[in-house]
Write a structure and sequence with these properties.
Layout (H helix, E strand, L loop, with lengths): L1 H6 L2 H16 L11 E2 L5 E2 L1 H13 L2 H9 L4 H9 L3 H11 L5 H22 L8
Antiparallel strand pairs: 1-2
Helix pairs in contact: 3-5, 3-6, 6-7
Length: about 130
């Protein structure tokens, strides 16, 4: 009976209640943020880098390289220009470059991609083409 009486003592109950109120009112720290994806090797993989890699693979095709050479741009110059594109333009080029080389539809898409890629690169580099 003595232990039960000590546990239900008003002073102890008030002390425990006040202690838990202060404990409950203490703010907990928490941080949240978005992080980049990582490969199983630990290498970070950003969405922008993935899109630039996709466009780089499209630039390696013979037709695209020849078309750029016709306009006086090398693949290295084109990659420099692509790195200055904003995210919307880069997304558009990357989505088109994923479909190069898939039959008749792939040829049509490839030609459209080449035209779009050349126009965007020329616009970014401020070069103009004069047709006489």
């Amino acid at each position: 009976m003595g232990l039960k009486r000590i546990m239900l003592d008003r002073r102890i109950c008030k002390f425990v209640l006040v202690f838990y109120v202060f404990l409950a009112l203490m703010p907990s720290t928490g941080e949240a943020s978005l992080i980049e994806s990582r490969l199983s090797t630990g290498e970070q993989l950003s969405e922008r880098a993935e899109k630039i890699e996709s466009v780089r693979k499209a630039l390696e095709h013979k037709v695209v390289a020849q078309r750029l050479a016709d306009y006086g741009l090398s693949q290295e110059e084109a990659m420099v220009r692509i790195s200055t594109l904003d995210d919307k333009q880069l997304h558009q080029l990357a989505s088109l470059s994923d479909e190069i080389g898939g039959g008749v539809l792939g040829v049509v898409i490839g030609v459209l991609l080449i035209i779009l890629l050349v126009v965007v690169i020329l616009k970014v580099s401020d070069k103009r083409i004069v047709v006489q």
